[in-house]
Design brief:
Elements lengths: L16 H17 L11 E10 L6 E10 L10 E5 L4 E6 L20 E6 L6
Antiparallel strand pairs: 1-2, 3-4, 4-5
Length: 127
């Protein structure tokens, strides 16, 4: 014997699974809204898609539900990198800092020496 359960609300669908998935995606949206690495003014989207596919006799249907969210990606980061070429042709890249390395800020913290990375040597350009 088939047990029938009337669908009266969203929380009744698929034993509450639809509501669970909706809430899980909504949590992702809230996390994305409060993420300081994202643009606070861009729109996030939460989509609840329901497909109802009846059979030929119209006495039953396939009921499909999908819940998705569209989040905002991280904002671009920007940093000025100072480039130099050593006497041996080695290319050096150093991040620019806001203060002179070794200088103390108002709280007494010393500005660290910026990271410098050595890359390959400069190739001769054919003329």
């Amino acid at each position: 014997m088939i047990c029938q359960r009337p669908i009266k609300s969203l929380s009744d669908l698929m034993d509450g699974s639809v509501e669970e998935r909706f809430n899980a995606e909504l949590d992702k949206v809230w996390q994305n809204v409060f993420d300081p690495n994202t643009d606070p003014k861009k729109t996030r989207t939460l989509t609840l898609k329901v497909k109802i596919i009846p059979n030929e006799r119209r006495d039953s249907c396939d009921f499909r539900v999908n819940v998705t969210s569209s989040l905002v990606s991280y904002t671009d980061m920007s940093q000025t990198v100072m480039l130099s070429v050593g006497a041996d042709g080695t290319i050096m890249a150093t991040e620019r800092t806001g203060q002179v390395p070794g200088q103390l800020d108002i709280d007494g913290n010393e500005t660290p020496i910026p990271q410098t990375i050595a890359f390959g040597r400069l190739r001769e350009v054919e003329q």
